[in-house]
């Protein structure tokens, strides 16, 4: 841990010249984003962007990502392990749902049903920012957490680290873990430290890939309710109703894993997330991470998350979903910045709205990916976080009012442009789906050549 901290300090120091150059360019009014982005945000984006390179191996990046921070302050955290169900019904149902929504040529690695690690997290009353977590059992922490709860609401938040991660656990491992965790809320296993939570008191939430995962989980539930006559699933010896959550709330959701929509390149100057290094017209190749025990996989594939032929499936790229499959879904909140994933969230919101879903959509001019989590104290983030929280509370009380409108906030929050969700975006739904499927097909061709070369190498060795 000490060596990791030292490495981070060294990485910060070598970036001081980059920050200085950015500041000088701003003072000389040479910045391409100064009309929409504050100097503080531009410096932060430049700094974060400099870390997102292909210099480190996948395993090294995972090491940094999975490092726990010290738990203290205004929160209760109670660790819980959701036990593996004795039945295989969850996996069998998920596979049926994937195939039902597919086009017939998709392939994927069959995941294992397993115990899922999770955390109960809640606000801790009477604490300061440095108050340490008491040395008591997780069961006692959970009881203390529930004593401090004021609203009967559970946010089912998908964040990296707890569910099975790629590349070693590709699609649909993450959705399987999420489905097991959700069913465990609806119907806990015997001996669980918590009681069953009604679906109408649960809100799915996530940012970036976690937001995309939640949308994939919701689409899985909608599909299972369509193809299973009883709308139940066998779980820990009980037939559990596949009830939908009260709502789903996401920021900067990743809804097109092919990264084929226009904002992927057009909004690069506002974002710290780098655009793809390739454009159509070339042979698609995997990102050139230094090889290690995680990447490349055996047999090789071109994408970390899924086989190439899965990348336009509604469970992996919800923005590519065909008309009508979100019908009957719960209220949905989507917030995006002027970022690479702007079009992912915007077209997802429009698609759900056209399927009859009550959608709240907010777009923040000049803001980067997951800005509310990156810089939570700036006015735009405060506005986003309050809207996000209000939606969650309104969802469990059945009072979400979207009215089919999208809110476009200017960079200073001094002007709000209200538009119909039907009118946002310049692409039609068919054009969005066509672009994503073209991105998938490009990867299929590249993966075919990659695996052909690998097989030839195996024969020669």
UniProtKB/TrEMBL annotation:
Domain Alpha/beta hydrolase fold-3: 162-265, 303-372
InterPro entries linked to this entry: AB_hydrolase_3, AB_hydrolase_fold, GDXG_lipolytic_enzyme, Lipase_GDXG_put_SER_AS
Database matches in Gene3D superfamilies: alpha/beta hydrolase
GO MF terms, alphabetically ordered: hydrolase activity
Keywords from the named record: Hydrolase
Family to which this protein belongs: Belongs to the 'GDXG' lipolytic enzyme family.
Protein name per Swiss-Prot or TrEMBL: Lipase/esterase, putative
């Amino acid at each position: 841990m000490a060596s990791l901290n030292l490495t981070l300090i060294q990485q910060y120091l070598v970036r001081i010249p980059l920050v200085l150059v950015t500041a000088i360019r701003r003072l000389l009014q040479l910045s391409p984003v100064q009309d929409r982005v504050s100097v503080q945000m531009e410096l932060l984006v430049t700094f974060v962007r400099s870390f997102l390179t292909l210099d480190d191996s996948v395993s090294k990046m995972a090491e940094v990502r999975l490092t726990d921070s010290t738990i203290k302050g205004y929160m209760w955290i109670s660790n819980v392990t959701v036990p593996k169900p004795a039945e295989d019904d969850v996996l069998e149902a998920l596979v049926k749902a994937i195939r039902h929504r597919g086009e017939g040529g998709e392939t994927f690695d069959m995941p294992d049903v397993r115990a899922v690690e999770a955390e109960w997290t809640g606000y801790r009353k009477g604490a300061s920012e440095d108050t340490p977590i008491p040395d008591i059992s997780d069961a006692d922490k959970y009881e203390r957490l529930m004593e401090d709860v004021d609203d009967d609401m559970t946010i089912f938040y998908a964040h990296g680290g707890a569910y099975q991660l790629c590349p070693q656990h590709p699609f649909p491992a993450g959705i399987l873990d999420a489905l097991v965790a959700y069913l465990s809320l609806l119907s806990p296993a015997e001996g669980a430290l918590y009681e069953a939570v009604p679906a109408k008191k649960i809100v799915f939430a996530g940012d970036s890939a976690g937001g995309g995962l939640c949308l994939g989980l919701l689409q899985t539930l909608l599909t299972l309710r369509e193809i299973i006559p009883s709308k139940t699933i066998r779980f820990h010896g009980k037939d559990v109703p596949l009830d939908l959550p009260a709502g789903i709330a996401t920021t900067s959701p990743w809804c097109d894993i092919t990264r084929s929509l226009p904002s992927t390149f057009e909004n690069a100057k506002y974002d710290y997330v780098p655009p793809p290094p390739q454009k159509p017209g070339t042979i698609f190749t995997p990102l050139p991470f230094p090889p290690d025990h995680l990447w490349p996989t055996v047999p090789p594939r071109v994408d970390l998350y899924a086989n190439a032929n899965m990348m336009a499936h509604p469970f992996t790229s919800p923005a590519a979903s065909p008309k009508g499959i979100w019908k009957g879904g719960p209220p949905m909140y989507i917030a995006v910045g002027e970022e690479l994933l702007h079009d992912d969230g915007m077209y997802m919101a429009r698609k759900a709205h056209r399927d009859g879903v009550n959608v709240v959509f907010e777009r923040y001019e000049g803001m980067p990916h997951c800005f509310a989590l990156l810089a939570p104290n700036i006015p735009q983030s405060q506005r986003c976080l309050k809207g996000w929280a209000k939606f969650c509370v309104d969802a469990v009380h059945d009072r979400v009012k979207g009215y089919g409108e999208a809110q476009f906030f200017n960079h200073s929050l001094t002007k709000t442009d209200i538009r119909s969700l039907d009118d946002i975006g310049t692409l039609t739904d068919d054009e969005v789906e066509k672009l994503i499927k073209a991105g998938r097909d490009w990867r299929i061709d590249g993966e075919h050549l990659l695996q052909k070369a690998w097989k030839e190498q195996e024969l020669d060795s």
